[in-house]
Amino acid sequence: MEFWFSEFHAPDVKHCMRVNRHLYSKKSDYQQIDIFETPEFGRVLTLDGSVMLTERDSFIYDEMITHVPMAVHPNIQDVLVIGAGDGGVVHELARYDQVKRIDLVEMDPAVLDACKTYLPENASRLDDSRVHIYFDNALRYIRRCTNQYDLIIVDSTDPFGPSEGYFTREFYGICYNALREDGIMVNQQGSPFYRHDADAMKRSHKRIVSTFPISRVYQAHIPSYAAGYWLFGFASKKYHPIDDMDPKKWEDFHLKTNYYTTKLHVGAFYLPAFLERMLEEVEA
Q1: pLDDT one-digit tens code per residue, 245-269
Q2: Phi, psi at residue 260, to the nearest 5°?
Q3: pLDDT score for 158
Q4: 43 closest CA partner among 81, 17, 70, 67
Q5: Which of 53, 105, 200, 257 would disulfide-bridge 58, Cβ 3.0–4.6 Å?
Q6: Ramachandran angles phi, psi of 188, nearest 5°
Q7: Which whole number is the average pLDDT over 131-153?
Q8: What is the pLDDT of residue 85?
Q9: Is 113 an annotated catalytic residue?
Protein backbone atom coordinates (compact mmCIF):
# COMPACT_ATOMS: atom_id res chain seq x y z
CA MET A 1 0.00 0.00 0.00
CA GLU A 2 1.29 3.45 -0.91
CA PHE A 3 1.33 6.15 1.76
CA TRP A 4 1.00 9.79 0.71
CA PHE A 5 0.99 12.97 2.79
CA SER A 6 -1.34 15.61 1.36
CA GLU A 7 -1.91 19.23 2.34
CA PHE A 8 -4.56 21.63 1.10
CA HIS A 9 -2.94 24.72 -0.42
CA ALA A 10 -6.38 26.05 -1.32
CA PRO A 11 -9.91 24.58 -1.05
CA ASP A 12 -9.53 23.04 -4.50
CA VAL A 13 -5.77 22.40 -4.54
CA LYS A 14 -3.75 19.73 -2.76
CA HIS A 15 -0.01 19.16 -2.64
CA CYS A 16 1.00 15.51 -2.14
CA MET A 17 4.25 13.77 -1.30
CA ARG A 18 4.91 10.04 -1.26
CA VAL A 19 5.99 8.89 2.20
CA ASN A 20 8.43 6.10 2.95
CA ARG A 21 8.12 6.20 6.74
CA HIS A 22 6.22 8.07 9.41
CA LEU A 23 9.14 8.77 11.76
CA TYR A 24 7.50 10.78 14.53
CA SER A 25 4.05 11.71 15.74
CA LYS A 26 3.09 13.57 18.89
CA LYS A 27 0.19 15.67 20.09
CA SER A 28 1.85 18.33 22.22
CA ASP A 29 0.10 20.83 24.47
CA TYR A 30 -0.12 23.17 21.47
CA GLN A 31 -0.28 21.22 18.22
CA GLN A 32 0.08 17.97 16.32
CA ILE A 33 3.72 17.36 15.34
CA ASP A 34 4.70 14.87 12.63
CA ILE A 35 7.91 14.08 10.81
CA PHE A 36 7.83 12.01 7.62
CA GLU A 37 10.57 10.56 5.47
CA THR A 38 9.91 11.06 1.77
CA PRO A 39 11.88 10.00 -1.34
CA GLU A 40 11.79 13.45 -3.01
CA PHE A 41 11.86 15.99 -0.18
CA GLY A 42 13.76 14.02 2.48
CA ARG A 43 12.46 14.48 6.00
CA VAL A 44 9.41 16.70 6.31
CA LEU A 45 8.19 18.49 9.45
CA THR A 46 4.46 19.23 9.67
CA LEU A 47 2.49 21.04 12.36
CA ASP A 48 -1.26 20.48 12.49
CA GLY A 49 -1.05 18.96 9.01
CA SER A 50 0.82 21.87 7.38
CA VAL A 51 4.35 21.57 6.00
CA MET A 52 6.80 23.70 7.97
CA LEU A 53 9.98 22.54 6.29
CA THR A 54 11.53 19.84 4.17
CA GLU A 55 15.17 18.81 4.04
CA ARG A 56 15.13 19.41 0.29
CA ASP A 57 14.17 23.10 0.23
CA SER A 58 14.38 24.54 3.77
CA PHE A 59 17.69 26.21 2.89
CA ILE A 60 15.81 28.63 0.64
CA TYR A 61 13.57 29.89 3.42
CA ASP A 62 16.30 30.01 6.07
CA GLU A 63 18.79 31.84 3.85
CA MET A 64 16.32 34.42 2.56
CA ILE A 65 14.85 35.33 5.94
CA THR A 66 18.35 35.61 7.47
CA HIS A 67 20.90 36.88 4.96
CA VAL A 68 18.76 39.68 3.52
CA PRO A 69 18.73 41.72 6.75
CA MET A 70 22.30 40.68 7.60
CA ALA A 71 23.48 42.17 4.29
CA VAL A 72 21.71 45.48 4.98
CA HIS A 73 22.35 46.37 8.61
CA PRO A 74 26.05 47.20 9.14
CA ASN A 75 26.43 45.73 12.64
CA ILE A 76 23.83 43.23 13.85
CA GLN A 77 24.84 41.85 17.22
CA ASP A 78 21.64 41.11 19.15
CA VAL A 79 18.91 39.09 17.44
CA LEU A 80 15.49 37.91 18.52
CA VAL A 81 14.02 34.94 16.66
CA ILE A 82 10.34 34.19 17.17
CA GLY A 83 9.31 30.65 16.30
CA ALA A 84 11.85 28.72 14.21
CA GLY A 85 11.98 25.89 16.74
CA ASP A 86 13.48 23.63 14.08
CA GLY A 87 16.72 25.62 14.39
CA GLY A 88 17.25 26.46 10.72
CA VAL A 89 17.25 30.24 11.13
CA VAL A 90 19.48 30.01 14.20
CA HIS A 91 21.87 27.84 12.17
CA GLU A 92 22.24 30.59 9.56
CA LEU A 93 22.59 33.38 12.14
CA ALA A 94 25.25 31.47 14.06
CA ARG A 95 27.49 31.52 10.98
CA TYR A 96 28.13 35.23 11.65
CA ASP A 97 30.88 35.88 14.19
CA GLN A 98 29.63 39.44 14.68
CA VAL A 99 26.37 38.17 16.20
CA LYS A 100 26.77 38.14 19.96
CA ARG A 101 23.31 37.06 21.16
CA ILE A 102 20.49 35.05 19.63
CA ASP A 103 17.33 34.88 21.74
CA LEU A 104 14.97 32.20 20.46
CA VAL A 105 11.37 32.34 21.68
CA GLU A 106 9.48 29.16 20.86
CA MET A 107 6.08 28.27 22.27
CA ASP A 108 6.40 24.50 22.04
CA PRO A 109 9.40 22.63 23.50
CA ALA A 110 8.24 19.44 21.79
CA VAL A 111 9.14 20.96 18.40
CA LEU A 112 12.76 21.47 19.47
CA ASP A 113 12.97 17.99 20.92
CA ALA A 114 11.63 16.40 17.74
CA CYS A 115 13.93 18.39 15.47
CA LYS A 116 17.03 17.69 17.54
CA THR A 117 16.35 13.99 17.08
CA TYR A 118 15.04 13.80 13.52
CA LEU A 119 16.36 16.98 11.86
CA PRO A 120 19.78 17.28 13.52
CA GLU A 121 21.38 19.37 10.76
CA ASN A 122 18.76 22.08 11.18
CA ALA A 123 19.05 21.97 14.96
CA SER A 124 22.83 21.67 15.11
CA ARG A 125 23.48 25.24 16.33
CA LEU A 126 20.79 25.40 19.00
CA ASP A 127 23.50 24.52 21.54
CA ASP A 128 25.71 27.45 20.48
CA SER A 129 26.75 29.47 23.55
CA ARG A 130 25.23 32.63 22.01
CA VAL A 131 21.78 31.04 21.75
CA HIS A 132 19.31 31.52 24.60
CA ILE A 133 16.05 29.58 24.31
CA TYR A 134 12.85 30.75 25.98
CA PHE A 135 9.72 28.62 25.94
CA ASP A 136 7.15 31.36 26.10
CA ASN A 137 4.38 33.12 24.24
CA ALA A 138 6.21 35.60 22.00
CA LEU A 139 3.69 38.39 22.63
CA ARG A 140 4.22 38.11 26.37
CA TYR A 141 7.99 37.87 26.00
CA ILE A 142 8.48 40.79 23.67
CA ARG A 143 6.27 43.16 25.67
CA ARG A 144 9.05 43.16 28.26
CA CYS A 145 11.66 44.27 25.68
CA THR A 146 12.51 47.86 24.79
CA ASN A 147 15.39 49.01 22.59
CA GLN A 148 17.16 45.63 22.88
CA TYR A 149 17.58 44.13 19.41
CA ASP A 150 19.22 45.01 16.12
CA LEU A 151 17.16 42.40 14.28
CA ILE A 152 13.90 40.57 14.92
CA ILE A 153 13.08 37.57 12.73
CA VAL A 154 9.46 36.44 12.95
CA ASP A 155 9.47 32.85 11.71
CA SER A 156 5.92 32.00 12.69
CA THR A 157 3.43 29.60 11.18
CA ASP A 158 0.71 31.05 8.93
CA PRO A 159 -1.62 33.79 10.27
CA PHE A 160 -4.36 31.42 11.33
CA GLY A 161 -4.90 29.69 14.66
CA PRO A 162 -2.09 29.87 17.27
CA SER A 163 0.07 32.32 15.26
CA GLU A 164 -2.68 34.80 14.40
CA GLY A 165 -1.46 37.17 17.12
CA TYR A 166 1.89 37.55 15.34
CA PHE A 167 0.26 39.37 12.42
CA THR A 168 -1.57 42.14 14.31
CA ARG A 169 -0.91 45.86 14.48
CA GLU A 170 -0.27 45.48 18.23
CA PHE A 171 2.41 42.85 17.65
CA TYR A 172 4.25 44.92 15.06
CA GLY A 173 4.15 47.91 17.41
CA ILE A 174 5.68 45.81 20.18
CA CYS A 175 8.40 44.63 17.79
CA TYR A 176 9.08 48.26 16.83
CA ASN A 177 9.61 49.16 20.49
CA ALA A 178 11.89 46.15 21.06
CA LEU A 179 14.21 47.22 18.23
CA ARG A 180 17.03 49.72 18.57
CA GLU A 181 16.80 53.01 16.67
CA ASP A 182 18.20 51.44 13.47
CA GLY A 183 16.64 48.00 13.91
CA ILE A 184 15.15 45.71 11.27
CA MET A 185 12.24 43.27 11.46
CA VAL A 186 11.85 40.48 8.91
CA ASN A 187 8.83 38.18 8.82
CA GLN A 188 7.36 35.50 6.60
CA GLN A 189 4.42 36.90 4.64
CA GLY A 190 3.00 33.75 3.05
CA SER A 191 2.02 33.25 -0.57
CA PRO A 192 0.20 35.85 -2.68
CA PHE A 193 -1.16 33.33 -5.18
CA TYR A 194 -4.32 31.86 -3.65
CA ARG A 195 -7.01 34.30 -2.55
CA HIS A 196 -7.14 33.28 1.12
CA ASP A 197 -3.37 33.65 1.51
CA ALA A 198 -3.25 36.86 -0.52
CA ASP A 199 -5.88 38.51 1.68
CA ALA A 200 -3.91 37.58 4.82
CA MET A 201 -0.71 38.92 3.27
CA LYS A 202 -2.35 42.26 2.42
CA ARG A 203 -3.72 42.66 5.95
CA SER A 204 -0.31 41.99 7.42
CA HIS A 205 1.51 44.33 5.04
CA LYS A 206 -0.94 47.16 5.71
CA ARG A 207 -0.29 46.89 9.45
CA ILE A 208 3.49 46.83 8.99
CA VAL A 209 3.40 49.85 6.66
CA SER A 210 1.47 51.79 9.30
CA THR A 211 4.11 50.92 11.94
CA PHE A 212 7.52 51.20 10.24
CA PRO A 213 8.85 54.10 8.12
CA ILE A 214 10.43 51.66 5.66
CA SER A 215 8.52 48.55 4.60
CA ARG A 216 9.11 46.35 1.57
CA VAL A 217 8.12 42.87 0.41
CA TYR A 218 10.49 40.39 -1.25
CA GLN A 219 10.08 36.94 -2.75
CA ALA A 220 11.56 33.46 -3.00
CA HIS A 221 10.57 30.26 -4.74
CA ILE A 222 10.06 27.37 -2.31
CA PRO A 223 8.66 24.24 -4.00
CA SER A 224 6.99 22.67 -0.94
CA TYR A 225 5.06 25.83 0.02
CA ALA A 226 1.77 27.03 -1.46
CA ALA A 227 2.14 27.67 -5.21
CA GLY A 228 5.90 27.34 -4.75
CA TYR A 229 5.97 31.11 -4.30
CA TRP A 230 6.66 32.76 -0.94
CA LEU A 231 6.97 36.28 0.41
CA PHE A 232 8.88 37.92 3.21
CA GLY A 233 8.42 41.33 4.77
CA PHE A 234 11.33 43.70 5.41
CA ALA A 235 10.57 46.52 7.87
CA SER A 236 13.12 48.97 9.20
CA LYS A 237 13.44 52.12 11.25
CA LYS A 238 16.36 53.35 9.12
CA TYR A 239 17.75 51.08 6.40
CA HIS A 240 16.44 50.57 2.87
CA PRO A 241 16.81 46.92 1.79
CA ILE A 242 18.47 47.78 -1.54
CA ASP A 243 19.96 51.28 -1.17
CA ASP A 244 21.70 50.39 2.10
CA MET A 245 22.79 46.89 1.14
CA ASP A 246 26.58 46.53 0.90
CA PRO A 247 27.38 43.62 -1.46
CA LYS A 248 31.13 43.66 -0.87
CA LYS A 249 30.82 43.67 2.90
CA TRP A 250 28.51 40.66 2.83
CA GLU A 251 30.65 38.81 0.29
CA ASP A 252 33.67 39.38 2.55
CA PHE A 253 32.03 37.09 5.11
CA HIS A 254 32.82 34.23 2.67
CA LEU A 255 29.67 32.34 3.57
CA LYS A 256 28.78 29.51 1.22
CA THR A 257 25.07 29.64 0.37
CA ASN A 258 22.84 27.54 -1.83
CA TYR A 259 20.22 30.14 -2.71
CA TYR A 260 21.03 33.62 -1.49
CA THR A 261 23.40 35.90 -3.40
CA THR A 262 23.76 39.67 -3.30
CA LYS A 263 22.49 39.87 -6.89
CA LEU A 264 19.47 37.76 -5.99
CA HIS A 265 18.96 40.01 -2.95
CA VAL A 266 18.31 42.98 -5.23
CA GLY A 267 16.19 41.00 -7.67
CA ALA A 268 14.00 39.57 -4.90
CA PHE A 269 12.53 43.03 -4.27
CA TYR A 270 11.44 43.46 -7.91
CA LEU A 271 7.95 42.00 -7.85
CA PRO A 272 5.52 40.88 -10.58
CA ALA A 273 2.84 43.34 -11.66
CA PHE A 274 -0.09 41.58 -9.98
CA LEU A 275 1.72 41.66 -6.64
CA GLU A 276 2.74 45.30 -7.01
CA ARG A 277 -0.92 46.17 -7.51
CA MET A 278 -1.93 44.18 -4.41
CA LEU A 279 0.58 46.05 -2.27
CA GLU A 280 -0.33 49.44 -3.74
CA GLU A 281 -3.95 48.84 -2.73
CA VAL A 282 -3.04 48.62 0.95
CA GLU A 283 -0.26 51.21 0.91
CA ALA A 284 -2.50 53.97 -0.49
Answers
A1: 999 999 999 999 999 999 999 999 9
A2: -70, 135
A3: 61
A4: 17
A5: 53
A6: -80, 135
A7: 94
A8: 85
A9: no
Chain segment 14-34, per-residue pLDDT in tens: 999 999 999 999 999 999 999
Catalytic residue among 155, 197, 199, 252: 155
Does the pLDDT value for residue 157 go beyond 90? Answer: no
Helix axes 273-283, 195-209, angle to 10 degrees: 50
Average pLDDT over residues 112-117: 96
- Against a cut of 0.70, is the pTM above it? yes
